[in-house]
Amino acid sequence: MASTSSSCHAEIKHVDVSGQGSEENVLGEESASTISEHIQEIPHEVSAATATESRNKPPSLVANWLLGFVHYVGGILGLLISFLPIIKLREHEKVKEPDCEVIRKPRTLTVDSGNIPESQHDLESKHKVFLSHSGAQKDFVEQLCVDLERCDRFPFFDKLQSSIPVGEKFPKLIFDAIEQCQVGVVILSEDFFMKSKWPMLELNAMIKKLERHNSRITIIPLFYQISIEAFKNPKNHSRWILQWKKWASIDKRINVEEWKKVLRVMKTITSIVAEKGISDVSLREGIVAEICRLVPSETRYDNSHIQGCSRICKVIQHKIDQVMTTSKNHIIGLYGMGGIGKTTIGKALCNELSSKFHDKVCHIEFGSGTEMELLRKTLKTCTQIRHDVLDELDDISQGFSYLRRRISTQKVFLVLDNVQDNYKSIQVAQAYLKGGYGPGSFILITTRTIDVLKKLHLDGSNSFEMPDLEEDEARSLILNCSISLPSNEINEEFVKNSIKQCYFSKGDGTSKHYHPLALKVLSQQLGSNSTLQPSPFSEINTFNGYGHLEHPIFSILRSTFDSLRREHQLVFMDLALLASKLNTTVWPIHWNQLDWLCMVHDKTTEEIKDMLEVLKRKLLVEDLGGGFTKIGIHDLWIEFAVEEAKPHSFRDQLWVYQEDGKRAALQRRGRWRESVERMCFFNLGFRSLDGLKLDDFVNLTVFALVVDIHMPDCALNLDLSGLVHLKSLQICTRGMSVRAHGLNFLTSLVELLWCTPGTPCLDEIGRLKSLQYLKLRNCMGINVLNFTELKFLKVVKITKFPDLITIRGFSSRLTNLRSLLIKSCKSLQNCPGLDELYSLEELSLLECSKLPRLPCLGQLTNLKECDLSQCESLEAVPGLSELVALEKFSANGCRKLAPLPDLVKLTKLQELRIEECLVQCKPGVASLFALASLRPSLSKLSVLEVITISKWNGLIWTSIPNLPMLRKLKLRDCEGDDEVPDLQSLKRLKSVKLESCDYKDLLGLSTVTALETLYIHACNELKRLPEFERLTKLRQFHICGRYLDDIRDWPSASDMCSLEVLSVDEISSTKIVPDHESLSGLRKLKLYGSGCENVLSMASSSQLEFLSIYYFETTEELDFSGFPNLRELVLWRCGALKRLTCSKPLTALNRLQVENCVSLVEMPNLSSTFPHLENLFLKNCRALSCMTCSGPLLDLKNIELIGCDRRIEMPYSVSTFPKLKCYIVGDSSS
Length: 1230
Description:
The chain has 1230 residues and is an alpha/beta fold. Among the domains are: 2-93, no CATH class; 117-294, Rossmann fold, CATH 3.40.50; 309-465, Rossmann fold (3-Layer(aba) Sandwich); 780-895, Leucine-rich repeat, LRR (right-handed beta-alpha superhelix) (Alpha-Beta Horseshoe); 1114-1230. It is built from 33 helices and 44 strands. The strands form 8 sheets. It has a 25-stranded parallel sheet. It is globular, with a radius of gyration of 37 Å. Mean pLDDT is 76; it is low at 1-63, 77-125, 530-550, 583-589, 919-924 and 926-941. InterPro entries: Disease_R_plants (IPR044974), LRR_dom_sf (IPR032675), NB-ARC (IPR002182), P-loop_NTPase (IPR027417), TIR_dom (IPR000157), Toll_tir_struct_dom_sf (IPR035897).
């Protein structure tokens, strides 16, 4: 029966409704009375009299046959009627439009939509995308629909039953969907306008919605099987209009004048064009990317399991409504201790308020990612900036500039969750609060203490405590998290007593609350008791083994922790104390938490993942993505781990964790040292090592010492000879000197990180035969490194060995070596055996200025990245042409590099950087371009994304259009082309930098609509610039040179209103900046020459955040009082400058750099004028004899006074500069 129904349905889908091939027979237009009459004449039921007679009289054979036939026909007709409403509305898919002008009336009958009951189908709110197309594009659109669903965007598509269910009134569903959608995708073709009226009916409805006030629809036209020229051709319009008039004579919904207007409006909408050679896959990728930018993911935070969620959300929403109506400051703060559900409720509120804020809701949890990751998430959610642009964003200041500029018209709901009580966290929160959000926006801040909210200037009326769980909610939570049981098997008294264990004082001495995290953890413990009877409760009730713990919740956490096997405890403690605490710069390259755990515990990846799954089930850790390559731990668990690592008299101690430097804890007697397996000392914790004999810790496997604070007068000596079981040694003390002895005894050592001014015995390192990960930095006086015995090495990073001449031991024995980085080894002359590292994937030889040659690298067929930048003596890269896996190659600054070999085989190459390579020709690159020009037959070379070249003396621009994946292009000292051709095919090109090139005409760049950065410097032959009004995405523009007066048709500032970064000199500033009112979005400004001084008075200066001034040779005084938001100030070679003044504090300034201002004699008081300064750099300011700092600079981290009067040396003390890491004083030659 099921298969029969399916086949009937398939036949009806393709039925010719009109019987004449005319598509004018549309559901909902003709009466269904005739067929209804026939149906009504069929006797579906037999009267009672007839039935009685039938029972008394045996039916004849003919009667039986007739009765059966009637029932059969009735059933068929009934089935037909049930399916008629879903006959597809794309008539051209069923029939071909007749060529004759007269439209005959259809012979077959149609169903009047007015006789169909109102739809029982509620249009799904998830349909925020509408796909409009003609039948010929069905396959393309079906795959587009699949691609969108894979990205969690679910379009309205007439082939989906979720869009048009069986038996529903489809015309209403279509127009309702258009009213609801945020994006309409229109796949244009000749058939779209000629074969069926439905595509134009849909498009007309979209245009009407678009023209309404406050419309929220975006239309994305794709010129798929019709060119823009054909679309604009008046002859085609005449043909289409003639057809439309035929349809309008039958369908009163069609207004031909409105449809003509649709054509006019469509000409003004930015479109996607199916260029020749671009595949359908690429087109769909472009559409999907644009939709993902405009429409948020449908995935919501799961709050179905949260007890009290609805009630608490209502409480907070009521508070939000109050603040919205009574306060101009639409911000509230929510505070409460860790683990009570602030984060969870913040996410739930995002779900609740999603519709009200049109999906512009964003939850960012401080500490859950880097500052840049969280900012990208905010921008992706709350703005319409393209996601690929944001994925490449790596400048925090630029990101917040995006936030301020792009969000001012958006109504958003933003949750700043878990703001910590430290300066950095508060500073970041303040940056978000300055976002300049659109009218009706709201921000919720959550934190542990009300003090943080006060520091963010929130008063009592805008701050309130997290609402408490009620008893019934606590009960439901503990039961839901435990094993599900029938209600008659649950011991209520036992459950009640269990809940009481999680009823804690808030610390104010009066009030109490139920703690959600404690309830969850306790329920996990009780879950093993299948009947929830009071058998194990007496054991759990002995929770608090330590009377001194800060909070009773640690008792419950301890019970869970004690239930773990010892190996699971070790993994958890390693994560909480080491992996979550160590600065990311300490980790070796290509090294994540999962890798580290595998190494320390000597387990496989799968074994560690299984252990992490156990911890996850017990709520100790979270998998933040990548299969535990990034792991999250709740703050309470980390606090518990710190407590657990403290010494306790009644049990063995496995961990030593010191941050405060108290020595007494490690000086106590006993054999407890033999049980310790991990030791970590952070910052002042190093003081605990004074007088400590490390030989006593015979079972130690991990030792970490990280000192980020500046301790110039401290030095530390470590005797490591007794740590024979040590696997990981991490010494990172940039602020103090450390010397170690006995490294050669560490035969089990797998990981060694040594980043400290002290020098280890490198002969001893050469004997560490188990070593896999090695990172060395800042070692003086070392001529030779020998890795002959280190055959298990996987990652090697060597930086700043100024005396190193050679590295020995590279050979085919190093089968595990994947990554090798050697940087700033200025004396290095050879690396024998480099050609035998067959497993090598990444090779970086940077700033090795005396390295003349390399062995042939042709056998390194696994090499993916090769960077030889600033190896100024390097003459050749033998074997480069054979590196078939190479994706990135850079040789910037290799001034003696000979012509590159033929690069034809490098089909995977994505980035090519050969700037400042003083060669006259590059035949290898020329062949690469030549090969790329043969696309699409050899389209594999189209992956090239980045090109950086200098000294090119041949034609290059004619080949550039053949690289459709190109993102960045930088040319320096190049000649051979006069003008740039049309680059419309480069849809991904975002950055063009031209320096000292002889090009005359850049008009061809006008068609690079994705261009964001244009840098033109010293191009002295230049006569014509691009048309800037077409470069709507341009964000950064630099133009400087001596002969700019020859340029005609300068752009006005109004043509560059999207600019955020501008660099100009004395000539270009007079051409562009006079119309400065239009540059209101400008955030970063660079000025070259005294002739730019007038620019400093422009009205938009109050918005500037970054200001750099170069070569102001006649200016004696600069006042920066008009730059209240300035974050960075750079002054360079301002020879006449004598005074810097500022009448108001620049509270946002964190970087001040003054170089070669030889007349400077006066600066403002640092502490009062720049209270949040982090970096101070003064170089060659010889006339500056005094500098006032009347108070502490609490955020100052780096001071450099080079080539200045010695008398300006600033007094240093921990209280004056508590965060100081680097303090350098010297003459200009040091």
